[in-house]
Amino acid sequence: MPDYSLLIFDWDGTLVDSVDRIVESMRVAAERSGLSWRSDEAIKGIIGLGLPEAIQTLYPEVDDEAALAIFRSDYAEHYLLLEVEPSPLFPGVAEALEYFRQAGYRLAVATGKSRRGLDRVLKGRGWEGFFDITRAADESASKPDPRMLNEILAHCRVPAQGALMVGDAPFDLEMARRAGMDSVAVSYGAQPISVLRQYGPRLEIGHFNELRAWLDGRVQNPRIEVSKHVG
């Protein structure tokens, strides 16, 4: 197994159980704009993109700045109402992240959230200084463009082969592939593992603690570790 020194995490659907709130907020915003219904699967399929890219993928008819701004505002307003009680971390996340930091790993976040949204959730958890670096879509480029990852690598002075991207969406894994780094597919988030497997992850996990076990070298289970990339 490569010697990773930098672990990079997606946020929604990977660290935080927020997928259902994203789906609901997208539906509410669409309804307020008089737009047609989209399925759960369709909405989950855009999670990971920056919000403008996500909206325009689902609703290409929202093609002017004023309509897009209204949709974004309605989405954010409803999401913030739901977030009065913050979305919970997935089981094992808090403990594993603390363990990784104490073990000497560099930690980063690469998310489709806005900088404002990411700062809000980090502050809410008292994590303002927890990660070495965080990158948001609106200050960089939306996934799967590798720009966020390249900026993180440059900041941490770590080569791509020394980093690992952990995510629950095809955009996460494709971004990692374009940046030349290995990835971990999370099966409990927005997309089923059958979809993520097409993007060649090094590892598939169904619980966050499986990442810790694998990095510690305690897991050599071919059900979990993908020995050959697919796709």
UniProtKB/TrEMBL annotation:
GO molecular function: metal ion binding; phosphoglycolate phosphatase activity
Biological process annotations from GO: DNA repair
Pfam family, one: HAD_2
GO CC annotation terms, alphabetical: cytosol
InterPro entries: HAD-like_hydrolase_sf, HAD-like_sf, HAD-SF_hydro_IA, HAD_2, HAD_sf, PGP-like_dom2
This protein's UniProt keywords: Hydrolase, Metal-binding
Cofactor: Mg(2+)
Record carries keyword Ribonucleoprotein: no
Organism superkingdom: Bacteria
Record keyword Repeat present: no
Name used for this protein in its record: Putative hydrolase
Native organism: Pseudomonas knackmussii (strain DSM 6978 / CCUG 54928 / LMG 23759 / B13)
